[in-house]
Design brief:
Layout (H helix, E strand, L loop, with lengths): L1 H11 L4 H11 L5 H11 L1 H9 L7 H9 L12 H5 L2 H7 L8 H17 L1 H14 L3 H10 L1 H5 L3 H6 L7 E9 L2 E3 L3 E10 L3 E12 L5 E13 L4 E9 L11 E9 L2 E11 L1 H4 L2
Parallel strand pairs: 2-8
Antiparallel strand pairs: 1-3, 3-6, 4-5, 4-7, 7-8
Helix pairs in contact: 3-4, 5-8, 8-9, 8-10, 9-10
Length: about 280
Amino acid sequence: MEESQTELKHLLSGKTVDELCGVMKELTGHFSCEFAIRSYLDESPDWALRQLKSWVRDKDSHVRRLVSEGTRPRLPWAPRLKMFQEDPSGGIDLLDRLYFDKELYVRRSVANHLNDIAKDHPDLAVSTAEGWLLRRDTAPVRWVVRHALRSLVKDGHVGALRLLGYGAPRVKQVTLKLSPKRLSFGDPLSLDVSFVSTMRQSLMVDFALHRRLANDRLAAKVFKLKSVELQAGERWSVNKRLPIRPISTRRYYDGEHRIELIVNGKSVATESFRLTGAEKARR
């Protein structure tokens, strides 16, 4: 990627703004112009947005994708577009013209763009997705919405879950059992979960590990269990083994930790366990 971007910079050097626009449009099928266009979005946002709006109906899917991908606030491996991160309305205006594109290649970029927005403006992302479904409730658009809201779903955002059909959970006889209650570092923790649905409903079942930090505060990490469709009176149960062992992205400390059972974004049960030997293992 770095080599192709160097070559692209050479091709763009010495061009006027209007010439640059034409060159990027022609080259975007061969180079990743979403990186190159970002500097012009920072320097001349009004000009750049006018150009991008004129491309949303271009016959070339690479050009249409550039409209979405080039304006992503949090495009991986690229500097963030702070203007779009603080106020994503300009980007949403473009996405509103692309979310129903005939090419999955373009729609995937739209979904990733809205997922970027969701990290800074979750409620706005949900309302935008809801508007798309109200205007065009089709299988391709439903896919875009699910993919766009994936981070919010993982975080248990109630609005995102509701939009995807996961309303307030109606469950009873909820049990969450942890074994062992005193866990040696390196051993797995066993979770036994069960509950009864009081109505026909779609349920997304997650659990959060509230891990003790060095300052004795707790930090939550959400794990997916399962999405299920249950009838009234139907019992659902599962056993999950959670490894508690050394991992590069997660440091454990001795003491009390907590497991929280979450259904459709709502906490329905919590249990604690005590971890020993984590600090000794690092010595």
